[in-house]
Amino acid sequence: MKNRVETFVEKYQLYKEDTIQQIQLEHRFNLVETFKIRKGMHVLEIGCGQGDTTVVLADMVGKEGKVVAIDIASPNYGMPFTLGQAIERIKQSELGARIDFHLETELLNFPITQQFDVVVLSHCSWYFESEQKLADYFKRLRHIAKRVCFAEWDLRFSDLSQRGHFCAVTILALYSQFVKNVGNIQHVFGESQIVNLMAEAGFTLQNKEIIDASFLQDGLWEMDYATSIQNEFNQVPSMIQALVSNYYDVINENIDKKSLNSFVLIFES
């Protein structure tokens, strides 16, 4: 009997030879399950990236539903496939008709004339360069939907094998404070910060869950990237250099390395 990822791949002819993407799909299915997305829903996804969560949302809403997916990034951003390449592949599939993609799109300037059933932000908040910008987004959501589903990495690692990912995240967050870059960690937000910002925007937390994401490759990717920029910390204050050096020692430990888990928050206004 086929599992849900195998069924998805066969049905939509997406990611057939892409084992990495299939592993990512399993995580996105786990997230979207907690979002309680139903057939016929109209969903706004913020920070769609290459469409990892988007395709699962589109599968869940069915032919009668719609997903509007926006991202501030350009079509040329991303690797090994750019956002433009990844999205074009999705558009050519059966799911393409259910999704409207809008790249280089800022939510605060995006014209929205309809109410959505739900807004989804999945592993995108760390791209925001400031708390104020994220808070402005949340305030705009108050006029777009009554329900918001939010997912992000959980820094409260539950196993020592996840500590390397935690250290890599910390290194990259510090890196963004001292070096201008376009990496995917600009500002780290935790669960309590998101709950507070959403409360200020008029939303109340209805449910929260921890989703196992330890099997994903993201932790290794972040550790590799953190290692690649180590020499760039030579110009930062000595206290920061000392702190970062200790984090690199943890990353380089010869132990099993896994990704952090994800937390999911469901809000209603």
Automatic annotation (TrEMBL):
List the molecular function annotations (GO) for this entry: methyltransferase activity
Protein name (database record): Class I SAM-dependent methyltransferase
Domain (Methyltransferase) spans 38-151
Domain of life, per lineage: Bacteria
- Keyword Methyltransferase in the entry? The reply is yes
GO process annotations (BP): methylation
Q: Which UniProt keywords apply?
A: Methyltransferase, Transferase
Query: Which lineage is the organism of this entry classified under, starting from the top rank?
Result: Bacteria, Bacillati, Bacillota, Bacilli, Bacillales
Q: Which organism is it from?
A: Heyndrickxia oleronia
